[in-house]
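Action item from last meeting closed. Structure (297 res):
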């Protein structure tokens, strides 16, 4: 084969490979968003499952709060999972006369209403496990939204913080009769451990104010039994908890919210014992002195 023919053949092969690579990397055309809503403009959410109490949330300022079936601050990351429905990409649209019952959209498995826009969610198709949805007259398929934020168990939506953000404690009643109280000057004291310095007692109080669960779960129907904890806020609101377990993790229950908080076992000592006083600082070592030179005669 002549060199010119060989070069031409190599050029054709290279061109074919380049075209194959370009077409292989070509992305699918992005589908439209499920709704015209902007996530940061939404102020009301309702999640409804058949036969279960409706879960309702409202935005006040920049924070979201549960209003039904309980009233509580929320976990902002879980709320984000619900809000993401607003601009979820519609991967494909279906004909309007499709059998909605076969897609589990009539009735839907559950519904989410963002402000006044209702989204019905049905079953999943068996190939890519995308979810059938219906909203605003459109029936289509979307990537399956996060289930933890949208299931009938609202406990995931409850804030993981035991004490509401921005709230301050003035009294803490712990198992074994240990009580911490803030005096009129703002110093923490404990009648049971009068020899403890205010800074030591304040450290225990601060541990409660900053305590966060790793995850939440629903309170079982039979309730919880264990030692009681009572936290009193500056505005006289109280938070009543039950110590369900200390091992293998610390579990606290809130009957009022119907939620069990699971915290790290490492927090047991921090939350139930006044810390010991700091060890005294060791005196600074005196640097060795060089021997004086003998006087010359």
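Sequence:
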């Amino acid at each position: 084969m002549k060199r010119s023919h060989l070069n031409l053949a190599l050029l054709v092969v290279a061109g074919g490979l380049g075209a194959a690579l370009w077409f292989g990397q070509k992305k699918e055309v992005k589908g439209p968003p499920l709704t015209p809503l902007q996530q940061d403009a939404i102020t009301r959410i309702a999640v409804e499952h058949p036969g279960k109490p409706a879960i309702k949330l409202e935005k006040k300022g920049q924070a979201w709060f549960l209003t039904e079936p309980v009233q509580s601050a929320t976990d902002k990351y879980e709320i984000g999972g619900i809000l993401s429905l607003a601009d979820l990409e519609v991967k494909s649209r279906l004909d309007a006369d499709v059998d909605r019952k076969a897609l589990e959209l009539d009735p839907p498995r559950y519904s989410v209403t963002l402000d006044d826009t209702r989204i019905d969610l049905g079953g999943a198709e068996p190939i890519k496990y995308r979810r059938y949805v219906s909203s605003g007259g459109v029936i289509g398929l979307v990537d399956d939204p996060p289930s933890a934020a949208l299931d009938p168990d609202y406990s995931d939506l409850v804030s993981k913080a035991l004490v509401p953000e921005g709230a301050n404690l003035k009294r803490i009643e712990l198992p074994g009769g240990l009580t911490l109280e803030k005096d009129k000057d703002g110093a923490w004291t404990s009648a049971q451990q009068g020899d403890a310095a205010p800074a030591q007692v304040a450290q225990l109080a601060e541990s409660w104010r900053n305590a966060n669960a790793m995850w939440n779960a629903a309170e079982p129907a039979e309730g919880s039994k264990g030692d009681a904890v009572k936290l009193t806020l500056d505005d006289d609101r109280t938070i009543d908890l039950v110590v369900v377990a200390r091992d293998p993790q610390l579990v606290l229950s809130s009957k009022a919210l119907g939620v069990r908080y699971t915290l790290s076992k490492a927090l047991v000592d921090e939350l139930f014992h006044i810390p010991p006083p700091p060890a005294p600082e060791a005196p600074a070592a005196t640097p060795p002195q060089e021997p004086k030179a003998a006087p010359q005669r």
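Note appended to the action item: DSSP finds four helices and 17 strands in the chain.
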